[in-house]
Every structure is written in structure tokens, then in C-alpha cells.
Amino acid sequence: MTAPQRPCIICIDDEPRITEGLALLLRREYRVITAAGGQEALERLQEIGTPAVVMSDMRMPGMDGAALLKSVRRLYPEATRILLTGEPGRDAAVSAINEGQIFRFLTKPCAPEQVLAAVEAGVTYHRLLTAEKTLLQETLVGCIEALIDVLAMTNPVAFGRSNRVRRLSMELAQAAGQPRLWQLQAAAMLSQIGYISLPVELVEKLYYGQRLTREEQILADGAPAVAQTLLGRIPRLEQVLEILTLSRKSIGAAPEGEMTLGANILRLVLEYDLQIAQGKSVEAATVALRARGDKHDKDLIDVLAAVVGAGSGRSETIVIPLSQVKPGMVILQEVRTDMGTLLAPKGFEITEVFIQRMRNFGPEILAERIQASTNSAAAR
After folding, report:
1. What is the 3-state secondary structure (H, E, C) of 145-169?
2. 127 vs 117, 124, 198, 336, CA distance in Å?
3. What CATH number is given to the structural domain containing 305?
4. Strand 53-57 relative to strand 80-85: parallel, antiparallel, unpaired?
5. Cα–Cα distance between 263 and 347 in angstroms, integer?
6. What is the largest CA-CA distance in the chain?
7. Rounded CA separation 325/44 (Å)
8. Rg (CA), the chain
9. Alpha carbons 31 and 4: distance in angstroms, whole number
10. What CATH number is associated with residue 15?
11. pLDDT-derived band of residue 187, with 50, 70 and 90 as boundaries?
12. Domain for residue 134, yes or no?
């Protein structure tokens, strides 16, 4: 049985004897990493990811402890921050607490048992934050998923698309080295939420790339503002909204970071999905994306091409009655009622909610034989 990984502690001080002493004190219970200054600490953190505790000296050449912990709070909010200083003073304390929102403030010299107690409390707090964040993420994403499934019943074009965009976005994120970017998952599902204000007929025209009238274009241009208004009322969606906002801008319009990467992925997947929905092959869609070098990251396009190319041969196309479709299958043709109402567009991924809704369909529609894919890759 594999032993659990020890919590990671990073200790920063420009005096080597201090970091060596802390490492010696803590190494039995924790994985200890040391750095001689703020910039070196940020570089080490970029390599290892979020630690349980960051313990920093206040006065250091270049970047002081307050500035470092402020950056840590922004980049690694779940890391517990402890300040260890030999010159306690009101200004230093106020700066550190306000800028870095520290968990503990310790003064040198500090008894070993005090250091151990502070670190232990910091690790416990980190675990609580991580558990709360995981629970929040799972609950939030689950609620969004349920909402989108319900909306797909009334607007299958827009919100059926949400599932495809989410799936491919997360596949692309994993291939790009960001498999746990839950904010991207939520943003992909909510990327069509603004279309809730548009007539279904207009959404279909947008989906299939048909020419819009001037009035229709004005309505379509207002969809992002509707999404901003709706989602802006929901707590904890700030980063999701950031991805959605940045995805509507050109590449390079924001500094590098996880949310910018998420926006670049979402922007690319949304346009790729539209190209496929309008009848282009995978190859033609990829060529069209490369022609928009000012809008998309060229390296991401290469990754996307590998992802969709690798999946293109894993599916099986079958012809079955609509009543026999199963969750995860993808419908490869439009399904409409006798009155012309669209029940599912081409590329619609079957969900449990859709299957339940089929009970309300007439027997003639349920008996209609349709083309479907046993794997979502065929929708590409």
C-alpha cells in the first residue's frame, strides 16, 4: 500500500541558516522546500504547484515577505501563509496582513514548538480549504450540468451544443496539461446561456452559419451581456465569468495564466464546433482555424488537431430507432416532429434527461430510424 504523500512546506529566507534550521525541524513530518528570496520562491512554486504552507521572512532583498505572500495569495489561494520576521513592527504587520492575508505572524527568535504548532495548524487549515473547494466545485458543476440538461429540452441547438463544447474543451485542457481546470468546464457549459434570450429560430441560424438580418444581428450581439447579467448574480463564478469574457477577445489580450489558457481553449473549441456544425470536415475546420492566427493560439490548434484526429476512428455509426438511443450516443442527423419542431440537431449528444423527455414523443417519432454514433468522436 502506497504511503500518503506528505504535505509540502516551502520556507523562504535570505539567511541560509534559517531555512536550514526550518528544514531540519520540519522534514520528519513534511516535504520541505527552501528558497533564498521571493522570486526564487515563485519559481519553485511554479514547478511544484500549490503547497500546504508558505512560510516567509519579512525583510528580504528585492521582494519582501508582504509582496511575496500577496502574490502567493493570488496564485495559490489555498496555500496557508505564515510570516516569520525578526523585526516586528506595526507597519510591517499591517502590510503583511492586508496584502498577504497571513494565517500566522511569528517573530524571531521563535521556539521550535511554536513553529511546529503554527505549521500544523496551517496544514490543517489548508486541508479544510481544499476539501471545501472540492465540495464547492463538484456541487457547482453538478448544478450547472443539471441546469443545462433542462435547458436542452427547450433549446436543443444551443444547450445540446454545450455538452459537446464541454467535452472537447476538457479533452483539450488535459492534452494541454491542465486536466483539473474546473472553471473551464463550467464556462464551457455556460457558454451558450446568453442564447436563452434569443428566439429558437435565430439560434438555429447562428448554429448553421446562416445570414442574419440587421435586427437578428443586434439580438445576437446582445447575448453576451445577457449571460453576464445572469451569471454575475451567482457567487463564486468570478473566474468562470473571466474565462467567458476573455474567450470573446483576441488572443494576447490578457496576461498568461490558467484563466487565460481556459479562455483560449474555449474560444478555439467554440469556433471549431461551429465549423463542424456547418458541414466542414475535421481537416477543413483545422485549416480554417489556422487561417485565424490572430485569434487562436497556434500551439493549441496543433494540440486540438491531435485530439480530434486521434479520436476520429474510435466510433461506430449505427442506424437504430430513436427509442433505442442511449446516453453518450451522438445523433448524426436532425430529428424533427411532424410540425417541424427541432427535437435534436445534428451532433446532439444523448443525455438521461433527453431519454426521459422522449416518453412525450409520439410513437411515430420514437420508431423513426436515425443515424447515431456510439462514441462522441463521430460528432467531430
Report:
1. HHHHHHHHHHCHHHHHHHHHHHHHH
2. 15, 5, 44, 51
3. 1.10.3210.10
4. parallel
5. 23
6. 82
7. 50
8. 26
9. 12
10. 3.40.50.2300
11. very high
12. no
Alpha-carbon distance values, 146 to 184, 222, 270 (Å): 17, 25, 21
Extract the C-alpha cell encoding 130. 481544499
Are the C-beta atoms of residues 312 and 326 closer than 8 Å to each other? no
Higher pLDDT residue, 350 or 171?
171
Residue 1 has a pLDDT of 44
Helices then strands (H, E): number in the chain? Answer: 16, 10
Query: Do 287 and 322 share a structural domain?
Result: no
CA torsion angle for 295, 300, 303, 305 (degrees, to 10)? 0
The helix/strand/coil state of 280 is coil
pTM of the model: 0.64
The grid coordinates of residue 47 equal 514547478
Record the cell numbers describing residue 249, joined without a space: 477577445
Q: Which of the residue ranges 33-37, 77-81, 115-119, 131-135 would you say has the lowest mean pLDDT?
A: 131-135
The secondary element (H helix, E strand) that includes residue 268 is helix 258-277
pLDDT band at 173 (very low <50, low <70, confident <90, very high): very high
219 and 191: one domain? yes
C-alpha cell recorded at residue 32: 520541505
Is residue 41 assigned to a domain? yes
Determine the pLDDT at residue 271.
Answer: 92
137 pLDDT more than 80: no
Residues 6+ apart with CB under 8 A from 204: 157, 210, 342, 345
Q: Please state, in angstroms and rounded to a whole number, the distance separating the CA atoms of residues 238 and 203.
A: 26
**pLDDT above 80 for 80:** yes
- Does residue 235 sit in the same domain as residue 370? no
Q: What is the pLDDT of residues 190-231, one digit of tens each?
A: 999 998 888 888 888 888 788 899 999 999 999 988 888 888
Question: Shortest CA distance to 242 belongs to which of 221, 258, 220?
Answer: 258
Domain enclosing residue 368, as ranges: 314-380
Nearest CA-CA partner of 153 in 339, 371, 362, 341: 341
For 177: left if phi > 0, alpha if psi spans -120 to 50, otherwise beta; the answer is: left
* 171 and 301 co-located in one domain: yes
**Residue 109 pLDDT > 60:** yes
- Cα separation of 206 and 220, whole Å? 8
